[in-house]
Design brief:
Distance between the termini: 123 Å
Shape: rod-shaped
Oligomer: single chain
Largest sheet: 5 strands, antiparallel
Structural class: alpha+beta
Radius of gyration: 49 Å
Order of helices and strands: HHEEHHHHEEEH
Number of helices: 7
Helix content: 55-70%
Strand order of the largest sheet: 2-1-5-4-3
Number of strands: 5
Strand content: 15-25%
Length: 227
Amino acid sequence: MLNFVAIVATMWALLVIFDKPTSGKSASNRQGSNVLAIVIAIVGVGGGAVSSVVIYKAIAQLQTLDGSLQERTKELNDANAQLRAYNESLAETVSRRTNELLFAELQYRSLFDATAELILICDGKSNALEVNRPVEMFFGCDRNNLRGFNLLEKIHPEDRQRVGDAIVETNRGEIVAEEVRIRSRTGEEQFFLAEFSPLLMDRESIVGFKVLMKDITPEKQNQIEQE
């Protein structure tokens, strides 16, 4: 477009310069028109050359920019492809680990409930966090209602001091065994050999303890009778 304008301006200037004088034009006006036309012609020719250079440079810059943009687009597409692959791999790993943990929990729950011993998981203040099926049967109460009860409250009053001391030692990291008496749902007093063991978090912090209680009532009754 700029070249076209420059060519038109140059042609007009040449026509003015070589145009024959008319009777109505003075010599001074004719001379001024010729000077102006010469200037326009020079500018037109030079402007056309300059316009060509400017346009060439602009096209070169646009080509460079387009190449750079295509390169960046390819890099982004490659990064997105890698991210999608990572997300798919992560989702697969999470799904697999979730299934593994669920299976492990089911196995643990099965063993937890299948054992004959009473098992209680307690926090550091002796409040029950989890109990197994034999505990439910012994107290005649659903585990959801047993969660939160204080273990010491279920212990025979004469045994609470010893059990309290055992819990203190367990919270320090020791494994302690004590004989305890507990009343069942029928009101019958039964003897248990209770083993207190600490529960560790990250193999360092003690967050509570586990109690495994084995019924030794028959042995204790025989012992009492022999005495």
